[in-house]
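If your schedule permits, I should be very grateful for your opinion on a structural question. The matter concerns a single protein, recorded as an amino acid sequence and a row of C-alpha cells. Could you please explain, in whatever detail you think fit, how the C-alpha cells follow from the sequence? I set the record out below, with my sincere thanks for your time.

——
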Amino acid sequence: MADGNGSTEAEIRKAQRTEEGARFRGALNKIRARLQTDKAFREERDAEVRALHPHNVRNVAPGQVHANAFLSNLSKMYKNDEYIGELVMPPLPVDNLNGTFPTFDKRDRTAAPDDAMGSRSDANELNETRGSDSFLLQGYALKNSVPAATLRNQDPGFNEMMQLTMALDEALALKREIRIATVVQTAANYSGNTVTLAGADQWSAGGGGDPIGAILTGASAVWGGGGPGQLIGVTSIDAWNVMTKHPAILDLFKNTMPGLTKADRLAQEVGLDRIIIGKARKDTANPGQAASYSRIWGKDFSIVRVSTVASLFNATFGYTLRRTGDPITNQWFDPTKGVDGAYFAQVGQFEQHKVIAGDAGYCIKACVA
C-alpha cells in the first residue's frame, strides 16, 4: 500500500524514529564516547573482539615492515692507545739512505793535562780524539686495496676509500712503536748503564724495593750533552700502576697530594723533566688464531736524555733517522682486478731507530714483577 506521495508502508516505517531506535542510538553514542576516553574499557572491548574473531586480528611484527640498514652516524672502531716511541727517539730527517756522523770521545771532557804554568814553561797541549758512527736506513711499507665494486655498493656509514690509507698509517705506526720499544728496552743499548731487579729488589705495591733510590741512581748515571735536551722517564702502564701505589712514592706527597701519585709530580721530585707512560697494545697471535693482546712496553723503567732540538755537539740517547720527505703515499687504479678494477694505496718510508749515545740513558730492567 502506498501513501499519497507514492511511498510504501515499509519505507515509511523505516524512515520513522521509533522510541526503541532512539534508545539504541543513545546507548551507541555513549559506548563510542567511552571508547575514546576510557583506555581500560577500550582494551576490554578489543580483547572481546579478538576472542570472538581471532582470524580478523592483524598480528604484524615490527621486523616484518622494516629492512635493517647501516646507520650513517654510528659505527664501531677501536684505536690503540697513544704511541710514545717518537717522544723517546724523535724523528730526524736525513738526505741519504746511509752515511756517517762524527763522534767525540767523552774522555775529552772529563780529563785534561796539568795546567800549572811556570815563568818560562810551555802550556801542555790537549790531546783530543775524533771518531765516526754510521747509519743505514731500512725501508718499511705496506699496501692496501679496495675493489671499485665495493665503493659503488657501500652503504652510509662506510668510507672505504678513506680507510684505504688510514689503515696503512695506523699499521705502520704500530710497527714503528714496537721497534722503538724493543730498542729502548734492550739493556745492551745502554753502554753498561743498566740494572736488572729481582726478588725483593723489585718494586711492589706492598713496599718492595726502593723505586726512588733506583730512579735517582739512574738519573745521575745519564750523560749529558752540549745541546738542549730533556731527561725523560719511560715506563709501561703495568709498571706505573704498581709504582703509583708504592708506599715510598705515596709518602712523598702524603701532605700535599693525597691519593694516587701523578706522573708529572713524581718526575719533579726525582729530577726528571717528565715521565711518559706507554699504554699501547699489540696482538701477538699468528694470523688465523684467536687474538692474544699484550702491552708493547714491558715492565721496565728507562731514563733517557732526549734532544729537544737537533744540534751538533750534543749527546742524546737516540733518534729515528728518516729519509727527508718520508713517508711517501702512492695511490693507483688497476683496471685488471675484478670486474670493475680496484684502487690501491701504499705508504712507506726509510728509517732507522739509531742509538746515538747509549750512556745518555739508563735502563732499570724488570722493575716490577
User: Anything to note?
Assistant: Residues 219 and 271 are 7 Å apart (CA to CA).
